[in-house]
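#onboarding

Welcome to the new folks! Below is a worked example of what a typical request in this channel looks like: someone posts a single protein sequence, and someone else replies with the predicted structure as tokens. Don't worry about understanding the tokens yet, we'll cover that in week two.

Example request:
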Amino acid sequence: MKEKAYKVLAEQLGISNKKAKELIDRGLVYVGDKKVVIARGLIDTDTKFRVKRIEKPEILFEDEKILAINKPAHITSEEIKEDSGYELLHRLDKETSGVLLLVKDEAFRKKAIEEFRKNRVYKEYVAWVEGIVAEPYEIDYPILTIKKNGKAKSRLSASKGKPAKTYIEPLEIHGKKSKVKAVIETGRTHQIRVHLARTDHPILGDTLYGGKPWKRMMLHAKRIKLLDYEFEAPEPKDFDIQ
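Example response:
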């Protein structure tokens, strides 16, 4: 007998259908090692689920102007904004972990936004990608972002896109997968994800842009430098593919 996945999960855990659907939508529910991605998909009613625990956000630094958070995967930037009560200086995708900055002072916010606007903020990420990356390279290709029904998807477009530049450097090779450092000058929506996919090295877990299913999207915002501040977030435990 089959039933919708979120209903089977709700029954097993003794939680509401809404909460069960939310867990699946966050990417936290597995059957064995396979992530359940469609909450309304039909599944055997005797299926046994495994639910991944979400790590708690960690404060990296705080003063009267700025709050730096080490954001876990599976939590949105907006949720951290709501919990902290402060405004976001930038955003990370839900499945991206790492340094997230919020601002506490309006005068500082204006100054910081200007730094972002003029591409004077250093943003360094690490990612596990498909294929072997043996040499550093640069991707300089405009990106067009289309937003529909509250969701965004980007693509390369020489005629309509906005300038976007990403620098890639290999860090480690494991089989046919590579760990790379990605530094971005600009901050277009899904920039690193789109650029890496364009060079046939999609990020593991980034199924939106052609990556193979994985336990999470393997992208981590490691370091950011803004004005006189510099913050670094250590890689989370689930970032090791071995």
